Amino acid sequence: MLKETIENLDLPKLLEFADGSPVRTVEDWQRRRKEILELLCEEVYGICPPAPEKVSTIVNGENENAYAGKVLEQNLTLFTEFDNKTFSFPLNVFIPKFVKKPMVIIYIAFRPNIPDRYLPIEEITDEGFAVATFCYNDIAADREDNFTEGLAGLLKKGDVRAGNDTGKIMMWAWAASRVVDYLETRDDIDHKNIAVMGHSRLGKTALVAAAYDERFAFSFPNNSGCSGDAITRGKEGERIEHITKTFPYWFCPNYKKYAGREKEMPFDQHFLVAAIAPRFVCAGTAVEDTWADPNSQYISYIVADEVYKLLGKKGFVHPDRFPEVGDIFHEGDLGFHLRAGTHFHSRYDWLRFMDFMKKHRIT
Ligand code: GTR
Fold it and tell me: Is 200 in the pocket of ligand 1 (CB under 6 A)?
């Protein structure tokens, strides 16, 4: 049943180079992955900002006995230096004190509030996870500021944005990688198990971050939908014409040319998911989130599976039907759940993501 639906979408092939030649081996895939990442920079998210020459932090505040004495909380400023420029942003770190080298979730947050309705810190640290979190607006403002502020202002080239100029999703993803630069200098966390997580536009960001930075062992896109994990061809709800009209600054200017012309795209969103292979991706979706379209999200994982198989992994383990409320597919390297309710980053989603990470922890 799924096979026919997917064949009818006539999706661009993952295991075929742009010149039509086949991708047969692991080495072929490494080259193909590079091609895919360049294509997605060029057509969707814009080019990656440069990696900094130097990253450093200062501690502005610390509580060694946060959350009933169970957690070390640190409020830092993270400084980056690149191309003779300096860019800094606030970063908050929470380390459960009674766990040796905890796994870490980098949470890209909508709001600076801690805790927040999307970020129940104590419940997460009680599960044994460390959290490192920053607010995306501290990187580049989520509004049309003509790319004058924050990282956007520093990267700006001319007055008019054009072609593959970096969009804000890519900038937020860049910041998540800077948090990894910093975490690598700490010896009280598990460097092998670093995840990036976000909701909605920041779920899209969590996918982009992991696609472009192999140091993320896990990506958790929650309700990421259009231009995140949902296949665009045949998609219900939000489409490129909507998203590029309301949020043109999330993307590079090239992307809008595909509004209403999805069939001409030499890619679709399974390219973004597959670029993370062989690492873990686990998606949260919600049945009433029809704007994101859970069925189209599900299809990405089904088709990305062939790359995982080529790399000798389990891939996506799922039944031959579309998902139903309450489904949790965690057996493979690609995970998926469909919960009741609307667009939101809920406790239920957090618990499923943490279950997945515990189950697949890299030792
Ligand atoms: C919507 C947007 C979605 C999603 C969402 C969000 O307005 O159309 O793509 O990103 O915002 O971030 O909450």
Answer: yes
Instruction: Give the global pTM.
Output: 0.99
User: Of how many residues is the chain composed?
Assistant: 363
Q: Which two tokens stand for residue 20?
A: 């039509």
The answer to whether the beta carbons of residues 40 and 96 sit under 8 Å apart is no
> Rounded CA gap, 314 and 277, in Å?
11
Helix (H) or strand (E) holding 281, with range, is strand 280-286
Q: Give the 3-state secondary structure of residue 288.
A: coil
Is the CB of residue 270 below 6 angstroms from any atom belonging to ligand 1? no
Instruction: Quick: pLDDT tens for 197-208.
Output: 999 999 999 999
> How far is 35 from 31, CA to CA, in rounded Å?
6
**Ligand 1 in reach of 11 Cβ (< 6 A):** no
How many CB atoms are located within 10 Å of the residue 123 CB? Answer: 15
Distance from the first to the final alpha carbon of the chain: 38
The answer to whether the beta carbons of residues 216 and 194 sit under 8 Å apart is: yes
